[in-house]
UniProtKB/TrEMBL annotation:
Entry keyword annotation includes Cell division: no
Lineage: Bacteria, Bacillati, Bacillota, Bacilli, Bacillales
Source superkingdom: Bacteria
Gene source species: Bacillus kandeliae
Membrane-traversing stretches: 128-156, 192-216
Short name of one Pfam family: Zn_peptidase_2
Keywords: Membrane, Transmembrane, Transmembrane helix
Protein name (database record): Zinc metallopeptidase
Entry-linked InterPro entries: Zn_peptidase_2 (IPR007395)
């Protein structure tokens, strides 16, 4: 029964977070921003206000596929956020520019996350191979190696949290100080950013729980030996 509750939690929590962000985004993507500018213009204004004239703003495919590419110094905005004159579009655009500002200022957690990318990718792709070998063949050494590899992926997700929260904090400061939104629109913009942040919190919580569960399984294998 405990395992059933556990697996329901790790399945339902991320789904709940995704539903929440989609509903919140859908609601505020229909609310026009008072200044009448679109996401691309909002991003460009914040970048220019911070002296980041070299960072480009481009349209990318997909729904909520917005991101900042530190390699090309480019802010990518999904079609709706690029073109729409909404509070949601302005908030998301400002969030991605927040990452560009972090990059320009050598924000420590962003640099740490970038350094973790290679080992986190290896860990995410290889960990379950060793974990399954360890579990089915009763090889605690293989199990331990899989757990260590998984831990790098979990660490990447944990480090992502301060990066995302800081980018959202910068976004709120920028869209208010630059006059992109009025003070009475701040609450709506914050709701969009908070809902998006919950997806990262949910994913990290699930990853940490799964890592803890596997550590307990490994401990049990050691005790049996």
């Amino acid at each position: 029964m405990n395992y059933l509750i556990y697996f329901l939690l790790i399945i339902l929590v991320p789904i709940w977070a995704q539903v929440k962000v989609k509903r919140t985004y859908s609601k505020y993507s229909k609310v026009p921003v008072s200044t009448g500018i679109n996401g691309a213009q909002a991003a460009r204004k914040i970048l220019d206000d911070n002296g980041l004239y070299h960072v480009q703003v481009v349209e990318t495919r997909g729904f909520l596929s917005d991101h900042y590419n530190p390699m090309t110094k480019t802010v990518h905005l999904s079609p709706h956020n690029y073109h729409d004159h909404s509070i949601a579009g302005a908030a998301v655009a400002a969030h991605e520019v927040g990452h560009a500002i972090q990059d320009a200022e050598n924000y420590a957690f962003l640099r740490f996350r970038h350094a973790l990318v290679p080992v986190a990718n290896i860990g995410s792709n290889m960990s379950w191979i060793f974990i399954l070998i360890g579990m089915f063949a009763n090889l605690s050494g293989a199990m331990l190696l899989g757990i260590v590899l998984m831990a790098f992926g979990v660490l990447f997700q944990v480090v992502t949290l301060p990066v995302e929260f800081n980018a959202s904090s910068r976004a709120m400061d920028q869209i208010v100080s630059s006059g992109i939104i009025r003070n009475d629109e701040e609450r709506e913009a914050r709701k969009v950013l908070n809902a998006a942040a919950m997806t990262y919190v949910a994913a990290t919580a699930v990853a940490v729980l799964e890592l803890v569960r596997l550590v307990l399984v490994y401990t049990g294998m050691q005790n049996d030996d």
